[in-house]
Automatic annotation (TrEMBL):
GO terms for biological process: neuron cell-cell adhesion; neuron migration. This is Astrotactin 2. GO terms for molecular function: inositol 1,3,4,5 tetrakisphosphate binding. Residues 118-240 form the Astrotactin-1/2 Fn3 domain. SUPFAM superfamilies: Fibronectin type III. Residues 242-334 form the Annexin-like domain. GO terms for cellular component: endosome; membrane. CDD domains: FN3. It comes from Rhinopithecus bieti (Black snub-nosed monkey). Coiled coil: none annotated. Residues 338-384 form the Astrotactin-2 C-terminal beta-hairpin domain.
Length: 402
């Protein structure tokens, strides 16, 4: 029973009083903190000591709670209960570094579920900024020291648009262990593994190198343990950067189209203008229209001149391609100045040294897999948008050497 209950029982039975103390019971209320008003033995004259500020007892060293128990049998039982409560939800026993679940700790699928299964959190890699075609994602390994043993991580990615039923189109599934680490995946996807600030913590990463520009993508991730259980899903939805545009070439095409439209336009010139505008990408066509209207709108804007020179049918085939450009990229493509640049970014490329036998996925622990990693480089082209042609100003000031 609790000690306070024991004292209350003695007081009730009148076995403990001011004048009659039982051997082995000693109460010192005046040493640390204020004597509580409910303490019968502390209300002796001269024994009360007021201390409005609580005093923290000194801690010499930290030990597990069960080590304070002297009886070996009780100590082992207490240790087992604490381990079970912390690692196995109190529904199983800790055996070495795993949980042996009780017979009542099974889910609807018949799989043991006493050991909690943490959810992996998928996120954008802070070291690789997404571009129009490249995205890098990462997550921290969720395998605890005791209990759940992660066998694999399953990635799903799909392009989302307004014309596709996202429930019917499931996208592509990739097994981190079987597809990516084994090298069976495509050259467009690479797997990596690094360590965080704590060496025991693994960070897994996947880099996608062949995405479509200005595309909305949905990525999901879940973990699989050695018993076949699935963790909760983690989702990242993002839009890739706008397509690359050669602004100088777009301006040259705009000048070419104006020259073809100017004056009498022969059938050959009409066909040349039509072929030129159909060969460029939708984003480039948007930029051509921007330059044409910026320089030659006083002679008629791009839409009107195209319909007048090429006819409504051909003009419609050209202009409807502008609808493929998102509103976000449309606003950027109206910038006064666009500059292209190429960055080289390092990433880890890892391969497994082991061949996992087919049908044995659930019995292999991913953290124990021998993996060889090497650093590689990926080139990422980007556009920079601005309102002027990148004027840089250097301000000099006199600084005292002292």
């Amino acid at each position: 029973m609790p000690f306070i209950t024991y004292l209350s029982g003695l007081l009730t039975a009148q076995m403990l009083s001011d004048d009659q103390l039982i051997s082995g019971v000693e109460i010192r209320c005046e040493e640390k903190g204020r004597c509580p008003s409910t303490c019968h033995l502390c209300r002796r004259p001269g024994k009360e000591q007021l201390s409005p500020t609580p005093v923290l007892l000194e801690i010499n060293h930290v030990v597990p709670l069960y080590t304070l128990i002297q009886d070996n049998g009780t100590k082992e039982a207490f240790k087992s209960a604490l381990m079970s409560s912390y690692w196995c939800s109190g529904k199983g026993d800790v055996i070495d570094d795993w949980c042996r679940c009780d017979l009542s700790a099974f889910d609807a699928s018949g799989l043991p579920n006493c050991s909690p299964f943490p959810q992996p959190v998928l996120r954008l890699s802070p070291t690789v900024e997404p571009s129009s075609t490249v995205v890098s994602l990462e997550w921290v390994d969720v395998q605890p020291a005791i209990g759940t043993k992660v066998s694999d991580y399953i990635l799903q990615h799909k392009k989302v648009d307004e014309y596709t039923d996202t429930d019917l189109y499931t996208g592509e599934f990739l097994s981190f262990a079987d597809d990516l680490l084994s090298g069976l995946g495509t050259s467009c996807v690479a797997a990596g593994r690094s360590h965080g600030e704590v060496p025991e913590v693994s960070i897994y990463s996947v880099i996608f190198k062949c995405l479509e520009p200005d595309g909305l993508y949905k990525f999901t991730l879940y973990a699989v343990d050695t018993r076949g259980r699935h963790s909760e899903l983690s989702t990242v939805t993002l839009r890739t950067a706008c397509p690359l545009v050669d602004d100088n070439k777009a301006e040259e095409i705009a000048d070419k189209i104006y020259n073809l439209y100017n004056g009498y336009t022969s059938g050959k010139e009409q066909q040349m203008a039509y072929n030129t505008l159909m060969e460029v990408s939708a984003s480039m066509l948007f930029r051509v229209q921007h330059h044409y209207n910026s320089h030659y709108e006083k002679f008629g804007d791009f839409v009107w001149r195209s319909e007048d020179e090429l006819g409504p049918r051909k003009a419609h085939l050209i202009l409807r391609r502008l609808e493929r450009v998102s509103s976000h990229c449309s606003s950027l493509l109206r910038s006064a100045y666009i500059q292209s640049r190429v960055e080289t970014v390092p990433y880890l490329f890892c391969r497994s040294e082991e061949v996992r036998p087919a049908g044995m996925v659930w019995y292999s622990i991913l953290k124990d897999t021998k993996i060889t990693c090497e650093e590689k480089m990926v080139s990422m082209a980007r556009n920079t948008y601005g309102e002027s042609k990148g004027r840089y100003y250097l301000t000099l000031s006199k600084v005292s050497p002292f």
